[in-house]
Amino acid sequence: MLLSRVTMKQHSKQQKNLEGYVGFANLPNQVYRKSVKRGFEFTLMVVGESGLGKSTLINSLFLTDLYSPEYPGPSHRIKKTVQVEQSKVLVKEGGVQLLLTIVDTPGFGDAVDNSNCWQPVIDHIDSKFEDYLNAESRVNRRLMPDSRVQCCLYFIAPSGHGLKPLDIEFMKRLHEKVNIIPLIAKADTMTPEECQQFKKQIMKEIQEHKIKIYEFPETDDEEEMKMVRKIKDRLPLAVVGSNTIIEVNGKRVRGRQYPWGVAEVENGEHCDFTILRNMLIRTHMQDLKDVTNNVHYENYRSRKLAAVTYNGVDNNKTKGQLTKSPLAQMEEERREHVSKMKKMEQEMEQVFEMKVKEKLQKLRDSEAELQRRHEQMKKNLEAQHKELEEKRRQHEEEKSNWEAQQRILEQQKLDASRTLEKNKKKKIF
Amino acid sequence: MASSDVARQPDQGVRPLSLAGHVGFDSLPDQLVNKSICQGFCFNILCIGETGIGKSTLMDTLFNTNFENFESSHFEPQVKLRAQTYDLQESNVRLRLTVVNTVGFGDQMNKQESYQPVVDYIDRQFESYLQEELKIKRSLHNYHDSRVHACLYFISPSGHSLKSLDLVNIIPVIAKADTISKSELHKFKIKIMSELVSNGVQIYQFPLDDETVAKVNTTMNGHLPFAVVGSTEEVSVGNKMVKARQYPWGVVQVENENHCDFVKLREMLICVNMEDLREQTHTRHYELYRRCKLEEMGFKDTGPECKPVSLQQTYEAKRQEFLVELQKREDEVRQMFVQRVKEKESELKDAERELQSRFEQLKHLHANEKAALEEKKRLLDDDQSSFSKRRAAAQLLQAQSLTANGKKDKDRKNYVGLSYVMNVTVKAPADCAAAHGWLALDYRHYTTVPYRYTEQVVCLSVTLFWLHVKYPPV
């Protein structure tokens, strides 16, 4: 999810009215002083095919020989592949110091096959973001040079027909990384009507392809809003640049001399150069920097850190959790893990208890069974014992009875035989 | 607040160029200022001082307004910090001012403890800024900065020594200066400054790097600490109404530089150096806090080979560490469980074994008992059988004796005569014939056996008798 511009809303806490002089109305002056002391920085990128007048326009914009025979413009430095090169210049005006970095792309769009010629540009922008991210994230932060690309002037060739596929492709790929300001180059090759037509066509195509070019911020000031609306109507700006100064009606102006007249660079009726210059340098330079810092850079940063934090895990959960820092995210994950561990422990504990109970139950059952069988056997044996005792007793009884009987019989016999003997003896006699 | 707050030096490869005309970027500071005005400013003051020393009155006087102040008692159990935010506007400049008051400071028995809540508060504000800065999706430009930009240290005229506070711009202020005479004041200021120095308190020095304000700042630095008087009441002096305190012996005018340093304080704090105070807080104090915090969390700028480590690498390394730690914890938990399971298993196995051995024991016992029982049974059987043999033999004998007395020779064949004691083991029917034959011989020697006869013989004869019946001679 990308950030869009947000104007800060004022929360009214407690509005106080001051009676008398306090002095913080001087704060803006303090800010002014400090900023002048610090100096300013700005990085501008120019992209377009060779021969579109890019270097001339830069020279015209900054009224200096940024590109000169010693430091040739991109169209004179074409190599085999698209390069991204930067030149730094320091300019001073009215006590204000500006470190200007111009990034150009020699070779862009000049090959027969231009597929992927935007890749070096994207890589460059990303690498500047990365440098800034690393510098910002260091433990010891001291010098944080800001070399992020804050504005990209994209030059459209004045074909009169509309955007080329390369134009569309480039802008689509870079509109979420950098502020794009599309310009119609060499505007002096079109009549005002042609220009108007061309502009309409381009804006239509830009809207069709949902390309987000740099948007001018809304202001509360009526005057400023009027100006902003005027600019919006004339987008994309059709510009003419020139390195030469020509005398026109006693005035020395920058312009291009034709047999049929002079196309003046700074004449609002001839081209939109003045609008561009005013907008880019005099009124919106700070805003371009702010949008780069607050929107494009933050988008890059959050994407980068989200990738690091989630390591490519892309589920719907991550979308809503981007409000934390990666460390806070890890803390949260740790807490989740701890609770997951607790749950796991509990589950395992439960399973363990259950199994132990089962086992103990089994043991108890076997023990009971054993006890039961033992009891049974004991009973059995006891019964048998009793039976046996009984039998024994009977037997003994029987035996003693019979023995008693026998004894009586024996006695009788004895008596009988004695009698017999007596009789025998008697007989013999 | 611009994040590239850095003194830029021209580095190599930078060409200075001269401009052929007015380009217009000299409006850059104005653009910046316009943006700041649009956004509004923010300033946070912390007032430290004992109860009743005049903190709230001074704030009211400084900002020419009546902040809602509650009179605090002297009996607070611990120091509380009360922060109140106000939106002020002066001409076109909007200021969101937060005044933080220490309630109950120095009222406790142990005055050393008074500082801790203050330190905690200051750290908390830094912490929340740091947290915002570290978020993945952050909105720093919208963030309400609550970090303490200035700390007014109120020293009472009876002068107590103050502890040092880190991470904040300290501006010492002598309160209720209308109770000190001018000569005493000078000595007192020197004493306080030396005490502050000896206690290691770093007070905020007004910056001297900007030529526009260097001069006035130097002078002011020499007047520290400012001796102030606060009052929101107006007294008529001459033909003007001025803020003052009315005494029987005169009127102390707050804005009279001869009477007190109030105007100097206002100049320095608000008009000249407010922005610098904010900048110092952000670039010095906050950076220090951040550095310490990050180092605590284990972040480093250079890796093990002293090569610079990018943010991504650091985070990835941390994440690795983190995942390893989680894994370890998981393994530990599992391990512990495996251990417990093993232990319990062996316990249960022991119990099982015990049960088993008891079972064996009982079985053994039973077997023994059963064997004993069997033995007894056997004995009983033996007894019974021997008894019945005896009985039978006796019966036989009786029957025999009866017939011997009656018919002697009748069916002699059917009777086996008792002969001598003979031990013949009759095992099997096969032997019978032999035994029988043998006995036939003795048959003729039929004699009466004396009365004494062994049971054995009886048994034998009985057996033989029955044998005879069973197996008649062939």
Tell me the number of structural domains of chain B.
2
What's the CATH H-level homologous superfamily of the domain at 31-68 and 80-311 in chain A? Answer: P-loop containing nucleotide triphosphate hydrolases
Backbone structural class of chain B = alpha/beta
**Rg calc of chain A:** 53 Å
Ranges of chain A where pLDDT stays below 50 over 5 or more residues in a row are 1-13, 312-320
The number of distinct helices of chain A, counting runs of at least 4 residues, comes to 10
Describe this structure in words.
The complex is a heterodimer of chains A (about 425) and B (about 475). Helix content of chain A is about 50%, strand content about 15%. Chain A has helices at about 25-40, 55-60, 120-135, 165-175, 190-210, 220-235, 275-285, 285-310, 315-320, 325-429; strands at about 15, 40-45, 85-95, 95-105, 150-155, 180-185, 235-240, 245-250, 250-260, 260-265. In chain A, the strands form two sheets. In chain A, strands 3-4-2-5-6-7 form a six-stranded mixed β-sheet, with helices on both faces. A three-stranded antiparallel β-sheet of chain A has the order 8-9-10, with no helix packed on it. In chain A, helix 7 (about 275-285) packs across helix 8 (about 285-310) and helix 8 packs parallel to helix 10 (about 325-430). The longest helix of chain A is centred in the C-terminal third of the chain and has 103 residues, at about 325-430. Chain A is rod-shaped, with a radius of gyration of 53 Å. Chain B is an alpha/beta fold and about 475 residues long. Chain B folds into two domains: about 30-295, 3-Layer(aba) Sandwich (Rossmann fold), CATH 3.40.50.300; about 310-390. Chain B has ten helices and ten strands. Chain B has helices at about 30-40, 55-60, 115-135, 180-200, 210-220, 260-270, 275-295, 310-405, 430-445, 455-470; strands spanning about 15, 40-50, 80-90, 95-105, 150-155, 170-175, 225, 235, 240-245, 250-255. In chain B, helix 6 (about 260-270) packs across helix 7 (about 275-295) and helix 8 crosses helix 10 (about 455-470). Chain B is elongated. Mean pLDDT of chain B is about 75; it is low at about 1-10 and about 410-465.
